[in-house]
Amino acid sequence: MIDAERLKILTESAKYDVSCSSSGSGRKNTKGGIGNADAAGICHSFTPDGRCISLLKILLSNRCCYNCLYCPNRAEADVPRASATPDEICQLVMAFYKRNYIEGLFLSSAVEGSPDSTMERLLDTVIRLRKIYRFNGYIHLKGIPLADRSLISRAGLYADRMSFNVELPSERSLRLLAPQKSKEGVLMPMKQLAAEKKAVGEEKGKHRHVFLPAGQTTQLIVGASPESDGQILKLSQAMYRRFSLKRVYFSSYIPVVRHSLLPDKCAGLLREHRLYQADWLMRFYGFSAEEIAGKGENLPEEYDPKCAWALRHMQYFPVEVNAAPLEALLRVPGIGNLGAYKIVRARKYAKLDFDDLAKMRIVLKRAKHFITCGGKFFGSENVNTVKTMLALEDKGPRYEQLSLFSTPETSLSALTGQL
Amino acid sequence: MNVYITDGTEECFYTAVFNACTDRDCVVTSSHTVQLSLGASVTAVRTDRQKCERVRNKLTEYAPHSLRDVSVILRRGSSDKEQVALEYIRLIVQKKSPVGGMLSHPAVIAARDEMKKVTLEAHRFKGFLRFMEAQGGIYYAPFAPDNDILEMILPHFIARLKNQPFIIHDTLRGKAALYNTKECVVAATGEKVDVPLSECEAHFQALWKEYYAAVNIASRPHEKQMKNYMPVRYWKFMPEKRG
Question: Which among B206, B216, B240 has CB closest to A4?
Answer without folding.
Answer: B206
